[in-house]
Amino acid sequence: MIRFFLLLLCVSVSALSAPRVSLAVPVAAAADLRLALPPLVRAHEARGGQRFNLSFGSSGQMVQQVLNGAPFQLLLLADASHADRLVSARPGAVRRPYALGRLALVATRASGVKDLASLRAAILAGRVRHLAIANPNHAPYGAAALAVLAGLGLADTAPLVLGENVSQALSFVTSGAAEAGLVALPLARYAGGGLIVVPVPPALHPPLVQTLVLMPGASPAARGLADRLTGPKGRAALLKAGFGLP
User: Where are the domains positioned within the chain?
Assistant: First the structure.
């Protein structure tokens, strides 16, 4: 019996002295942040010691994942409407704008597309047979792209190829699967491959007010990352990456 209690005491002491494992904070982010967000998060991790697990995708799909039980503490969405939907469904969630999304026309040099006017001409002439955009059913950049095409009179005639998110839509152009695309400027600027990149005037589509959502019970680490993103260093990094500021 004495030996049993000594063994139990050793186990208890070992459990108390064992270092606590710090789990990474789950964060969902719009695909247009795939390049801009990781350096900002790494700098924040180096400062505070907390780890973050980043998942990138389309805003609509990420919101649906949360509604289905995904444990994201912080979501960095590409527009305000999906944030509003989430906040309405989860009392106690807090929303905050952090950036303005920018759209860009990208095209291969062989397509002859140099601007929106030449894109329209190339589509009508059949020289552009695949135009890549994010799926507008759940991706804000896809909805913005449709608005631009409607303004060009191409709403019903553009030969669309849909990506699950704006990053995949861009990959269709960089791989040659599509001759042109309407995608996120912060991604397009660093696409490489000799692509033509032309910023789309924001007035041609509804504003992409990128909005973050802190879920009820979000950890201090998640709140700290949200503060960094909307603070001076975060705003400067987003502006440098090609985003506008709200």
Answer: 25-100+208-241, 103-204
CATH H-level, domain 25-100+208-241: superfamily: Periplasmic binding protein-like II (3.40.190.10)
**Global confidence as pTM:** 0.89
- For residues 183, 234, 37 and 168, what is the CA-based torsion angle, rounded to 10 degrees? -10
Residue of 195, 194, 106, 210 lying closest to 148 (CA atoms): 106
The CATH architecture assigned to 103-204 reads 3-Layer(aba) Sandwich (3.40)
SS (H, E, C) 193-204: CCCEEEECCHHH
Q: Give Cα 184 distance to the centre of its chain.
A: 10
Report CA-CA distances (Å) from 79 to 2, 34, 74, 83, 145: 65, 16, 15, 7, 14
Q: What is the pLDDT of residue 171?
A: 96
Q: Tens digit of pLDDT for each residue in 63-94?
A: 999 999 999 999 999 999 999 999 999 999 99
